[in-house]
Amino acid sequence: MIHECAQKPADVLAEVYVNVRRRGQFVVLAMCDCELLGRVLRDGKIVFEVREEFYKGHRVSVEEAIELCKQSTIVNMVGQCIVDKALEEGLIHPEAILKISGVPHAQIVKM
């Protein structure tokens, strides 16, 4: 399967959904590749819902999402585009990526 972000020309920015919530001193960021919103990923006993209630917020470029990620204390990300970019930026470790139905998922918790 070729991912949407891999198909875009270099001058076209991929977009993701970001949903920012503030909980006291914490900034919680949920973000997903746009094409995953509303999907259910299954892998053995794992059932992962990319729920609109959690992930759908504003649609932004991957670069804007990465900047929000740097300012957040808790981050939940799902999708090839956003996880690849977070990895490239050094925000996550390759061993911290979980694949569910071939789709990468990662979390960041800053303490």
Plain-language structure description:
This protein has helices at 4-7, 52-55, 62-71, 80-88, and strands at residues 15-23, 26-33, 40-43, 46-49, 58-61, 74-78, 98-100, 103-109. The protein is α+β, with helices and mostly antiparallel strands and 111 residues long. The chain has a single domain (14-75, 87-109), classed as uncharacterized conserved protein from methanopyrus kandleri fold like (2-Layer Sandwich). The strands form two sheets. It has a six-stranded mixed β-sheet with strand order 5-1-2-6-8-7. It has a two-stranded antiparallel ribbon with strand order 3-4. Helix 3 (62-71) packs across helix 4 (80-88). The longest helix is centred in the middle third of the chain and has 10 residues, at 62-71.
Largest sheet: 6 strands, mixed
What is the level-2 CATH architecture name?
2-Layer Sandwich
CATH topology: uncharacterized conserved protein from methanopyrus kandleri fold like
CA gyration radius, whole angstroms: 13 Å
- How many domains, as an integer? 1
Q: Quote the average pLDDT.
A: 90
Task: Give the number of DSSP strands.
Answer: 8
Strand order of the largest sheet: 5-1-2-6-8-7
CATH superfamily: uncharacterized conserved protein from methanopyrus kandleri domain like
Contiguous low-pLDDT stretches (5 residues minimum) are none
